[in-house]
C-alpha cells in the first residue's frame, strides 16, 4: 500500500540544514514520542488549571491505569504497524482470549486456561502472518476476515451465562492493589510499564527487532540483504496475536466482566494509540514507549471529558483532532 | 527497449465488446466474485426457492442495497490506493442528517442536505490525503472519530421523522416483483460505471491507483483526481445511508458502524487490488449480494446463524486465495518444465 502513496517529490521543501533556525532543528530532532509527551503534559496542565483536584498524583495514576490497559491492547498493533501492516483482528482476538480463558478456566483450571488462551492468540497471529506473507493477501483484508471468523467462533463456542468468576491468578497481575510510596496502585500499571520496557528492548536491541523495522520500511532491501522476510513477518503477526490475547486476559482481569463485543472499542482505539505514539502507517517507524504515551494522551482526554461531563461525543471529537494534529506534525514522511 | 530503437506497436486485433468486457473484468479481478455469486445463488435457490416470491425478494433487496452502495464508495477509495476507515461514520452522519432534516426540509431538501454532508465529508478526507500528503488510512481514522461524534451530536439515540412514504420510495416496489432499492442501486452503479469507464476523468482514477507518478508526468493533476474521488465516494455513501434510513425507517447514529468492516470485506471479495488501480463495479455489487445474504441462507437452511461470520470469512478467503494459489502452482510447474528442457 505504501508504494502507491509515494508522491513525486514536488513539494519536498527540505531546506539546507544551515538555513533552518536552531529551534526548528531542535524540533525536527525531537524523538517522536516527545510530541505525545508534550501533548499529554499540556492536557494535564490544562486539566489541573481548570480543576485543581486533577493536578495530583492520584489523578495522574488513575489516568495512567486506564491508559495502561489501552496500551497493553495496542502493543501488538504497534508490531503490526512497524512491519508495514495493520492488525484489525485485535477486537475479536481480545474477545476470544477473554471468553476462552473464562470458559476453559471452569474446566481445566487457571494455569492451563491461561496457556490455552495465549496459544490461541499465537495461532491466530500465525495464520494472519502466513496468509499475509506467503499468500500475499493485504493485511487489512486478512485481519478483517480473521476478525469476522473469530466473531463467529466466539458466538458459537462460548456460553455467556457462567462467565463471572475471575481466578486469583489473573487478578494478581491486573486488578490487585500494590502499595507504592503510600499510593494504592492497581498492579496493571507497573505490569504494563514492565511489558513496555521488555518489548521495547526486543525491538531496539535484538536482531529480530531491527529486521522488523527493515522489513517494514524497505521490504525489497530486506530481501536483498538476505533477511528471511516471510519468517520475520509471520513471527511479527504471531507476537501481535499473542499480545492481543494477553490484552484480552488483562481486560477481563481488571474489569472482571467479559462479553462478545468487549473488544470493539479497541479496533480504532489501538490504531489511534499507535499513531498518536508517533508510528508511521507506512511502516518502519514506531515504538512501544510511543504507544504507551499515545495511550496516555487518549486516557487523559477521557479523564478530562469525564470530569467536565462533556460526553462521549466530545471525547471522540478531541480524539480525531489530536490524531490529525499528530499526523500534521510528522505523518508526512515519504512524500 | 533501448531508447534509440523505436518499436511501432502492432495494431491490437479488434475484439468484440463481449470479449473486451470479459478481458476487462478479468483484469479487474471480477470473474471470481461473479462465479461466487452464481454458485451462491444456485445454492440459495436450492435451499430456499421462496426467495423469488415478492416479499422475500423485496426484503433481500433492502438488505443488499445499502451495503452495495457503501461498498462502491469504499471501492472508489481502494481504486486510488487508499482505504476509508471513516466510511461507517459517514454513513451514520448522513443517515441521521437525512432522518432529522426531513422534518423541517421536505424529502428532496433532506436528500440534498444528506448528499451535501456526504460530499463534504469526502472532501475533507480528500484534501487531507491529496494536498496535505497524509496517509489515507490515518486521516480517515481521525475523521472517523470526528464524523461519529457529529452524528451523535445531531441525534443521540435512534429516532428521526421518517414516514412510510420514504419507505415506499427507497425500499418499496416499483412494479410487482421489482424492488425499487435494486433499481436505485442499478442506476447509481451504472452512472458510476459510465463515470469511471467512459470519461477521461474516470480513467484517471484508475491511473492514479496504478501509477500516480505516471499520471503526474502526463501533465494531469493526481491531487485533484484524489480529491474528486473522495467527494464522489462520499456522495455515493450518503445515498447508501438514505436507503438504509428508508428501509429501517429510523435514523440511528450507530447505523453505520457495521459497514466499516463489511464494506472492506465486500471490496476484498470483489477481487479489487488494495494496492489500487484494479476493481470492478459489477464485482462489488455481486459481492455485496453474496455477503449480505449469507445470514439469510443459513436461516433458511436451519443452521445456527452465528455461522454466517465464519462462512463469510471463508468465502472471502476462498475467492481471493484460490486464484492466487492456482497462479502459484501454474508458475511453479512452468518453471519446472523450463528447467527440464
From TrEMBL, chain A:
Membrane topology label: Multi-pass membrane protein
TM spans (from-to): 33-50, 56-76, 88-106, 112-133, 140-160, 180-203, 237-257, 263-282, 289-308, 314-331
Main location: membrane
Localization, UniProt: Cell membrane
InterPro entries for the chain: ABC_transp_permease (IPR001851)
Organism domain of life: Bacteria
Keywords from the named record: Cell membrane, Membrane, Transmembrane, Transmembrane helix
Membrane in keyword set: yes
Listed Pfam families: BPD_transp_2
Alphabetical list of PANTHER family matching this protein: ABC TRANSPORTER PERMEASE PROTEIN YPHD-RELATED-RELATED, RIBOSE IMPORT PERMEASE PROTEIN RBSC
Record's protein name: Ribose ABC transporter permease
Organism: Microbacterium terricola
TrEMBL record, chain B:
Cross-referenced InterPro entries: ABC_transp_permease
The UniProt record lists the keyword Nucleus: no
Transmembrane segments: 29-47, 59-80, 136-155, 175-196, 224-247, 259-277, 284-303, 309-330
Keywords: Cell membrane, Membrane, Transmembrane, Transmembrane helix
Compartments where located: Cell membrane
First-listed, main subcellular location of the protein, grouped into a coarse class: membrane
Pfam name, any one: BPD_transp_2
Membrane topology: Multi-pass membrane protein
Superkingdom in the source lineage: Bacteria
Name this polypeptide is given: Ribose ABC transporter permease
Gene source species: Microbacterium terricola
